[in-house]
Every structure is written in structure tokens, then in C-alpha cells.
Amino acid sequence: MSATTARSWFPAGPGAPAGRGAVGDRPQKWGHPVTYFVALLFIGVCIAPVLYIVLGGFRTNSQITTSPAGLPHPWVIGNYVDVLKSNRFWGEFANSLMVALASTLGIVVLGLMVSYAIARYDFRLKGAMYSLFAAGLMFPMVIAITPLYIVVKDLGLVDNLLGVIVPQIAFGLPTTVIILVPFLRAIPDEIEEAAAIDGASRLGFFVRMAVPLSLPGVVTVGILAFIGSWNNYVLPLYILNSQANFTLPLGVQAFSSQYSTDTAKVLAFTSLAMLPALVFFSVFEKRIVGGLTGAVKG
Amino acid sequence: MSDTLGTDAAVGRQSRVTAGARGAAKLPAPPRATARRRARVRLRLEIALLSAPAILMFLAFVIFPVALAAYYGFYRWHGYGAPTDWVGLGNYRLILTDPAFQQVLKHSFMIMGLSLVIQGPLAIGLALLLNQKIRGRSAIRVLIFVPYIISEVIVGTGWSLMAQSDGAINDLLRHIGLGALQADWLSDPKLAIWTLMAIISWKYIGFAVILMLAGLQSIPQELFEAAAIDGASYWQIQRRITLPLLGPTIRIWAFLSIIGSLQLFDLVYIIWGQYVSGTAGTSTMAIYMVAQGRNAGNYGYGSAIAVVMFLISLVVALVYQRFVLRRDLRGAVAEGAVR
């Protein structure tokens, strides 16, 4: 019953993560060769530019100039070593990491709290609150960036990592709420009643039962928040001025304009900058894809 | 104490039943009024405690800046001190007659339309293909999602190196004997927007395919089997069963794509920059807004552009909701906007 309620609110449902496994469980047969050909072609198109960046970092500038599309010959690791030894890369890496972790924490904690209120309490403004966040999906940061910059400036947070973290939390909330509310709603009332009989308060139930029970949704939201923060460009562009405070996206851009003649090193810097998000993604791939599709599909 | 909790659970259950009608879950006058009232105060307190931080944060850093943009849009203001030079609708009048804005508006809508036309059919086709029983499906899903995960800055840096006139793309064309096709992909004004569309499609198609795949997998297998037994061909099944049932997914994807296209900023800013993108024919509304606001210091005019951008997105979203998404979304965005 609670599942139907969730569905009528929004076509989202934690049904997707659960349903996914069922299809994969069947023994698979080999399909048609054309299918494989097209699939491989598609993968090739998706991956080639990424490979270009990664492999380019293993080449020298003269290799890149004489044969821009060639493979490394011989392979050189000097570019990567240089970048990995530079304080600049690690400083920007640390900034990105700090911003991403703090934003993720804020988004998950605040998002869980408000989603729980929307999902499992009944009050007059509930619908309005949900609609507010749903409408917030339509405000990407770009639209509000100029006044946002002014607000951050008035708070004295320009060129301060907090000036990036705080707005990122606020802008991360809509997605979080939209994804988490159906998860929290789907927890059967019987469990809550049983917990109440065992003497758990509603807030106790929230912390000890609801959060663990909706963990798949929480993890999805956390990953999305982390990657969103890791990749964010426009807000740091406005807020952070000094290179010591740059996050990696700003760093990549500054590096590539500063060393525009040293293409190989730019490529090495760029591929190292994308590595963490890729690793993070491949570790949690199932969760991201499952959660995303659970949240958006109709 | 446990009595109170029991009552609350009952209130909760009651409310879940009537979740559709807001505020309808008022119970009849309680026999033990003080206990009830105390429970209700506690309930209110809990709701406030849980939702206040997020709501305040959201109002302060999302809603307030948007409102502030509307306010600054009425001033000629360069970002220092309080705005004093009230120009009323002057900025908006300027926008309506500004040929540069008409240019970027054209580009933005072109990008929006082309994204739908290019990515939609491609994504549906690829999803149908990948939804068959083939080996390595989960690996495929990871790999096609990679471009979506990488940041716009990295995509922009990589692609602008590849697409420059002495870059990898032209070199590759030369090597495979298509040297005649070499071109100045980034700065030729006739080509640049198509290069941009190629990059956009590359970056976002994986997301579309993943969505469509999930939509396909939620269609009950029995329908296909029943249709096959009734003698329907593969294409008939796709046309009569798959596509209609995939409708909600397609409509949601299109909505996300439209909103995303109208706000496009990072990729263009990284690859072309604010000045070149104008002459290369790729600048978007957001690029123009940043160029006017932050970089030229016309914060009032920049804010007015932001408001126009917001209104365009809102109108498009509402129209789309009203006529396309109505059955899928039950007006979540529309309600929020009206209130």
C-alpha cells in the first residue's frame, strides 16, 4: 500500500534497485553479432576521447605535434610524475576533496532530515515543501550565480571553500529530497508501529531504523552529491580567486591556459583530475545507475 | 508515554490513508485534550527540527538569490554598494532589442531542439539494442556512462585539444584517407555549433541510454511474450508495446534534456570562452549572462538576463508539464511554481 502511495506522489520508487537483480539472474545466451558490433562501436565512441586524454599524458609534446592521433611511442611517464610531484596538483586535489566531502555530508544529513519529515509526518505544508524542492530541480546554479555570488560576498565567504560548500548543499537538496522521499515512504508502517511498541520514539526510529532501511537511496544520493561537487565548475569560478584555493576543475582550466604549449603535461594533469570521480563511479556504479533510474523513471 | 506514542502511530496511519488530501487528517475532538495537545506540540517540534535546516538553507541560497536577481534586474548597477539607479523595465526593454541576446537565444533553442532530435532516437535505438540478452551488459553500462561522469571542464579541455585544426580528429581523418573532410571544427562559424552538438551528444547520450534501459526493464516481459504468441513481428512489438510503455521515461528524459540545454554553460565557456563563442556561433544565454554580469560588470543587466532565462525555462517547463508530463508527474513543478 505504501508503495502505491509513493508512486502517486512521483513516478519514483525504490522498486528499481530491487527489480534490477531479477533480470540479471537468468543465465545469459549469446546474442546476435550485429548487436555486439553496434555495442562495441558505441563503447568505442564513448571511450576514445577519454583514452586520448589518458594516453596523451604518456607521450611527449613532439610526439603529439607530429602525430596528434597516434599512440605513445615510446611511452614516457615523466608528465604524470611531474604532476604527481607538484604541490599544485595535490593542493587542488585536497581542496576538491574537502569541498566534496563537506558538501556530501551536508546534503545527505539535511536531505535525510527534511525527506523524513515530508515522507512520514503529516502536516499542512508538506505538499508545499515537496513542491518547493521539486521546483528547485529547475534552478541549476547557473541561473542564480550572479546574485549567489553577491550573497556569498556579503557573508564574507569569497575565496573561501565554505563559500562553495554552503551553496552546493542548498542546490543539492532538491535531487536528494526527490530521491529519498519515496525510499522513506516505502518503509512499511508496521515496522514503525513495532518500533513504537518497543519504546522507540519517532526520532529514534528515524536514526536507528529509517536511515539504515533506506541506505541504498542514501548511498545513491551521497555519490551523486560527491560527483556533482567534484565536477562543479561555475560556482568555484565565481567564488574562488586565489590559486591556493582552487578546486580541480578550476585548476585544470588554469593549468591548461598556463601551459598551453605543453600539451602532454596538460593531458596528464587532466587525466589525473578525472581519475577520482571515475574510480568513485566504478566502485559504486550499480548504486548510481540504480538510484538514478529509480528516481527518474516513470 | 507509550500511550502517547501509540496515539501518534494511529495519527500517522490515518494520515497515510488520506495522504492525497492535505490537512484532511484532523481527528475529531479528543477525549484527553492535554495529552493530545502535548503530543501535537511535540509533533510540530519534531517536524520543525527535521525540516528547518534544509528549508532555511534552500530559501537562503536558492530562492533568495533568484529573488535578488529579479530585484537587481530593475537597476543599472555595477556591483558596488547598494543599487540606486532604478531603470524599471529598462534592462528588459534592452534585452528584447539586443541583437546579441537574440543571437544567444537562437543558439540556446537550437541546442535544445537538436539535443532532443539527435539524442532521443539514438538513445532509444541503443537501449533497445542493449536490452537484448547479450554478454557483458553491466560492463557496457559502466563504459557508456563514463562521459557523463567526467566533468565538463575535462571534457572541454580534451575535446578542444582534439578538435583544434592541427588536432587529433583532423589527423585521424588524414590517416584513414578522409583528408578532404578535415575542417576547422571549433572556429568555423558554420561548423562550430555542430561540433558543440557532437560533444554534447557524446557527453549526455550515456545518461539517456541508461534511463531508457531502466524504462525498458520495467516493462513486464509477459507483454512481449503474449504479443509474440499472437504473431506480432519484432518491429510491431517495438512500435505498439515498447514505445508506448517507454513513454513516461522518454518524456522525463526530454524534460531533463530541455532544462539542461537551456542552461548550458560550462562546456561552451571552457571550449570557446566568452569572446570566441560569440563569433563562432555557439554562445548561449548563460554565457551571455556571465559575460555581461561578472565579466563586464553590468550586474543589473546580467541579473535581468538571468531572470529572462529563468522565465523562459519556467514557461517551457510549465507548458511541457501541462501538455506532456501531466500524466506522469501530477504537477509537482507546476504546484511549486504557483504557490
From TrEMBL, chain A:
Gene3D superfamilies: MetI-like (1.10.3720.10)
One protein family per Pfam: BPD_transp_1
Residue segments, region Disordered: 1-24
SUPFAM superfamilies: MetI-like (SSF161098)
Key words, A-Z: Cell membrane, Membrane, Transmembrane, Transmembrane helix, Transport
Keyword Cell membrane: yes
Family statement: Belongs to the binding-protein-dependent transport system permease family.
Protein name: Carbohydrate ABC transporter permease
Native species: Actinacidiphila epipremni
Lineage: Bacteria, Bacillati, Actinomycetota, Actinomycetes, Kitasatosporales
From TrEMBL, chain B:
Subcellular location: Cell membrane
Alphabetized InterPro entries for the sequence: ABC_transporter_permease, MetI-like, MetI-like_sf
Topological relation to the membrane, as annotated: Multi-pass membrane protein
Matching Pfam families: BPD_transp_1
Keywords: Cell membrane, Membrane, Transmembrane, Transmembrane helix, Transport
PANTHER family recorded: ABC TRANSPORTER PERMEASE PROTEIN (PTHR30193), INNER MEMBRANE ABC TRANSPORTER PERMEASE PROTEIN YCJO (PTHR30193:SF37)
Protein name according to UniProt: Sugar ABC transporter permease
Species per Swiss-Prot/TrEMBL record: Actinacidiphila epipremni
